Amino acid sequence: MIYNLLTPFSEDFFLFNLARYHTFRAGAACLTALLICLIFGAPIIRWLRSFQRGGQPIRDDGPERHLIEKKGTPTMGGVMILTALVVSTLLWADLRSGFVWAVLLVTVGYGAIGFADDWLKVTKRNTKGVSGRGKLFAQAVIGLVAALWITALMPGPLADRLAVPVFKELLIPFGVFFPLVGMVVMMGASNAVNLTDGLDGLAIVPVMIAAAVFALIAYLVGNRVFADYLQLNYVPGTGELAVLASALIGSALGFLWFNAPPAAVFMGDTGSLALGGALGGLAVATKHEIVLAIVGGLFVVETVSVMIQVFWFKRTGKRVFLMAPLHHHFEKKGWAEPTIVIRFWIIAMILALVGLSTLKIR
Fold this sequence. Notes:
Elements: H1 2-6, H2 22-51, H3 66-69, H4 78-92, H5 98-124, H6 132-153, E1 161-163, E2 171-173, H7 178-196, H8 204-221, H9 224-230, H10 241-259, H11 268-285, H12 289-295, H13 297-316, H14 326-332, H15 337-357
Antiparallel strand pairs: 1-2
Helix pairs in contact: 2-4, 2-10, 4-5, 4-10, 4-11, 5-6, 5-11, 6-7, 6-11, 7-11, 7-13, 8-10, 8-11, 8-15, 11-12, 12-13, 12-15
Organism: Roseomonas alba
Family: Belongs to the glycosyltransferase 4 family. MraY subfamily.
Transmembrane segments: 24-45, 75-93, 99-116, 136-158, 170-189, 201-221, 241-258, 265-284, 290-313, 340-359
């Protein structure tokens, strides 16, 4: 909104000219989102406590210490993240950008699904919430609409093709089925972040790291000069997504202030489904879907651990891991929570660097 208001006067007022630059607005969006969380975080947490008697329901079959250490902590902290992210994006992004609105659709839509799930959990005092099929169906509908929207905004040669990192000219054609690919990417990223969110700060920092990578990718892919120099697929208009990704970083930083161990609030499905959906939307819009699997490799590993556990238990009645997702396996082995969290952060950072390297290796 600020961009749309100030740019008509950019030639008359020097300071207004700053609004034309993605870098300035991305930094401003990050700081704005951070400040919104820091200012309104405590009131939001008090509001969540007011109707969550007993806080987030804790699984009886989970690590035993969770029943003691995490009992009474409110959930649905994703409301804080979403509020800061959306307000900051609307303030600093170019509201004429279809890419921004498409990714916001996924983010807010998936957040609404998570909110419904969390609401049922805290009001009915159980860990079931919305049925698995119900969540997947709603995610599929929203993801498909967003993927169709993004595909319609794409340049012709890229609209229905999947870009492969490292190989600069390799594009896999999917034709009319590409929106289904985009939908799967968004759903997969959303649920992967959701599965990773199990310890204080475990999911939010890798999300920030991935968002930082995609803020850079969006800026480069949306700039003809940088895209040509790095031999990336140029997608006009995606530079605005750097503003949204930066707002995501700021809101995640603000949430981490309250989620740092011992957490005063959990993001819940409201936050995890929304944040994963946002990363998936950024990946599809910038034509870096496969790079997301590298940068977000930690989320992939957590998800695969669950799939392996379920598959093997159904076939043999035995477990591969002491408990899935993987972070619970290490809890069962006696690792301290901060040890698991920080080591997983390190892994996320390494994978982000690997993902970034694909921008130069061509």
